[in-house]
Design brief:
This protein has six domains: 118 residues, PH-domain like; 132 residues, PH-domain like; 30 residues, no CATH class; 117 residues, PH-domain like (Roll), CATH 2.30.29.170; 89 residues; 121 residues, Recoverin, domain 1 (Orthogonal Bundle), CATH 1.10.238. It is 27% helix and 20% strand. The protein is built from 21 helices and 24 strands. β10 and β11 form a beta hairpin. α13 packs antiparallel against α16 and α14 crosses α15. The longest helix is centred in the last third of the chain and has 18 residues.
């Protein structure tokens, strides 16, 4: 069989026809093993290159298409394209990315897209195996690609200049040295030495400055004409083609009617020569960016438009291009005639509210003929709505203040919803008290007392700034005193302390500091009086009761109950100690819930915990422990289960010791407060009724106020008034 010369074209007469007279064109199948996989190939491997880069004895056990899946080598290259249709240059440099897929040895060439390039960019060579030049059996592989080499793909010569870090590391591990990156070639010189002076190239200007617009503000004073006024203008200069458009800005309710455009987009001539038509004659000079600046006067076909200001992009453009740095806006003259008209215009006044529906609903029905729903504050709802465990609901405990002695022991929960500034009030009913409990006031916006309701404008309502411990709120002629808050509410106010001064420790300390500094020998007597009130075994700690008494003597009525709680929480001297009474309280709630649900299967629960603890570490994560409790059908609500898991013993990784859980659920030892008689009386007197649905609300707040210790040394150190002692002594 004659072999055709590959350098000759595949045309009749340039080679013999070896297939004339041949009747069988089948390929003899040959079975072979490649990378440990039996495959059917056209011919046995001989001198052909194999996809794997390793020797057969060193090849991996997995096939190549599995071992090198999604392993791609990326090279940066360029090629030169001749420009036969342009006399300005001989060629253009085009940058491409070459991708080599290790799994099958295929190659793909991509050219990054450039806006307004005028070239067909994107996928240049689809993914395929590319033969070597002048060969029908050999293909390009990874050994042919390296920085500094030239490769030929379908007649195009690509110069490789760089590669990514993964490619460089991979080739280095194969023992292939990868040179340093080669800089991109400079743009070819397209201007010969004997060329004429440079001329304006509109297409180049369009490619470089497209979608870049300079925006100016100005006015046109037309008060000299009859019924004339001052027209506010907005001037747009398009750098892509040096055109200008001018829009007129009409104030609201001006009563004037004008077209959408004061001057359509066009080249604005500096001066119109007399008796010269726009369609013929020499080109007329038009305005350029150098003619526009603050204070410039544009001649818009006989109308004088004064430029007064510009936008930030325009200022940056002039700062970079022309070196301007002063952009002082000009004042616009006042139109007295328009001011008289606008001053006499009265604001729309809505009719008084008739008591049906809400203020927003009634206002929307009065503004339009067609009734529409009121517009809510969507951005506030978006940021303050419930997100996971972040409920954005502030819960406070409250007491009812009136002359009825029966209402003295009633307990209420006031919930403030931050998403729409509404308030809901619920009562915690106690058994045999005569009050059922439940919803006391439905969720709604609560207005301040002693305001007129039947007025056109909505009266002021309670906000989140009014919700703090010690404050009194009057809702529907019922006076409530806020006596406590849950942990979430206190923590939320402390995190956003810049908006809530009652929880801002810096503001509170500054108030104490100014009060002590204003009194003669105030700080000296304050420190000396309570120097012996610290604990004998620890000179840094002081009881909460003594600390509160000391501040009350100094501040009198200048400090609220919420500010006392903020100080106690911030300067807590025994963190974690106050949780022991809370553990017994929650254990009592759990014991009541399990007794009502007739659950007593600790043996099965122990078996499940032992099975889940595979490493016999005695600890499980909170998520896994919650799953086991749900699988054993403990009749506990979500809030009560979370409170129970939070008071159990943990390690450094927050894993719970499940032996403590079994001891917590031991019915043989009933939950009892391990406190003295005085502390137990405080808990019974000040704690709310033990309701499992509200146990998440009532934490150790009351216990923190009446029990525990405060770091007295840290308080004095942050007070930072030692210099007053030296001056006063």
């Amino acid at each position: 069989m004659a072999i055709r010369n590959p350098r000759l074209p595949l045309l009749p007469g340039y080679g013999s026809a070896p297939l004339i007279g041949k009747k069988s064109f089948g390929v003899r199948p040959v079975f072979t093993t490649i990378d440990g996989v039996n495959m059917l190939v056209d011919k046995a491997e001989g001198d052909n290159r194999v996809p794997s880069l390793y020797c057969r004895k060193q090849a991996a056990d997995q096939p190549t298409w599995i071992m090198y899946d999604k392993h791609i080598l990326r090279f940066q290259a360029y090629f030169q394209q001749s420009l036969h249709e342009m006399r300005s240059g001989s060629h253009v440099v085009r940058k491409v990315d070459i991708y080599f897929y290790l799994e099958d040895g295929t190659i793909k060439v991509m050219e990054p897209r450039t806006d307004n390039s005028g070239l067909m960019q994107g996928l240049m060579i689809s993914r395929q195996r590319i033969r070597l030049p002048h060969s029908y059996d050999l293909y390009h592989d990874v050994l042919d690609l390296n920085v500094g080499r030239e490769v030929t793909f379908f007649g195009k010569v690509f110069k490789i200049v760089n590669c990514d870090n993964f490619t460089r590391v991979y080739l280095n591990r194969l023992g292939i040295n990868v040179p340093d990156p080669i800089p991109w070639p400079d743009a070819p010189e397209i201007l010969p030495e004997t060329r004429k002076p440079a001329k304006h190239w509109p297409f180049k200007q369009f490619l470089e400055l497209d979608r870049q617009v300079l925006r100016f503000y100005g006015y046109w004073d037309d008060r000299d004409s009859e019924f004339g006024t001052i027209h506010q203008m907005e001037i747009h200069y398009y750098l892509a083609d040096d055109t200008i458009e001018i829009k007129e800005i009409l104030p609201p309710n001006s009563g004037m009617e004008a077209g959408p455009m004061f001057m359509k987009r066009m080249r604005l001539p500096r001066k119109m020569p007399p008796h010269v038509e726009m369609t013929g004659g020499p080109p007329i000079p038009s305005y350029s960016p150098a003619d526009l600046s603050i204070g410039a006067v544009l001649n818009v076909f006989g109308r004088k438009v004064v430029v007064t200001d510009c936008d930030p992009f325009t200022k940056e453009y002039y700062r970079v291009t022309y070196g301007f740095d002063a952009f002082t806006p000009l004042d616009v003259p006042k139109d007295k005639s328009f001011e008289c008209i606008s001053s006499n215009m009265a604001e729309r006044e809505l009719p008084p509210w008739n008591g049906y529906g809400s203020y927003e609903d009634s206002a929307e029905n009065c503004r339009t003929v067609e009734p529409k729903p009121p517009h809510r504050d969507f951005m506030k709802f978006l940021h303050k709505d419930k997100v996971g465990f972040d409920s954005h609901v502030l819960r406070f405990s409250a007491r009812l203040i009136n002359d009825n002695p029966v209402d003295k022991w009633r307990y209420f929960i006031i919930k403030y919803y931050l998403c729409d500034d509404t308030i809901g009030i619920f009562e915690l009913g106690e058994r045999n008290s005569g009050f059922l409990g439940g919803k006391f006031f439905r969720r709604d916006k609560m207005y301040l007392p002693d305001v007129e309701f039947y007025v056109p404008n909505e009266p002021p309502a309670y906000t989140d700034k009014d919700m703090w411990i010690g404050n009194e709120v009057v809702i529907n002629k019922h006076r409530f005193r806020l006596v406590g808050a849950d942990e979430y509410a206190l923590r939320y106010l402390e995190i956003n302390a810049k908006d809530y001064p009652k929880a801002n420790i810096a503001v509170i300390m500054d108030k104490i500091r100014r009060t002590l500094a204003s009194q003669e020998n105030g700080y000296k007597n304050f420190v000396a009086k309570y120097m012996d009130a610290v604990l004998p075994n620890d000179k840094n700690l002081m009881t909460v009761a003594c600390f509160k008494q000391a501040l009350k003597e100094v501040m009198c009525e200048k400090m609220t109950e919420h500010e006392f709680i903020t100080l106690i929480r911030y300067f807590r001297g025994d963190p974690g100690k106050e949780k022991s009474p809370r553990r017994e309280m929650i254990r009592s709630l759990v014991f009541t819930a399990l007794t009502r649900g007739l659950w007593d299967d600790r043996a099965r629960l122990r078996e499940g915990l032992l099975h889940a603890d595979e490493n016999n570490s005695g600890k499980l994560s909170m998520h896994r422990l919650r799953q086991i409790l749900r699988a054993n059908r403990l009749p506990l609500s979500e809030d009560l289960m979370d409170c129970m898991l939070n008071v159990l013993d943990r390690d450094e990784q927050c894993n719970i010791r499940w032996e403590d859980l079994l001891a917590f659920l031991d019915f043989q030892t009933r939950p009892v407060y391990n406190l003295c008689d005085e502390d137990y009386e405080k808990i019974v007197r000040h704690a709310p009724p033990l309701k499992d649905i509200e146990c998440k609300i009532w934490t150790e707040m009351e216990l923190e106020i009446h029990d525990g210790f405060v770091n007295w040394s840290a308080f004095l150190c942050q007070l930072n008034l030692d210099h007053l002692v030296k001056d006063q002594s």
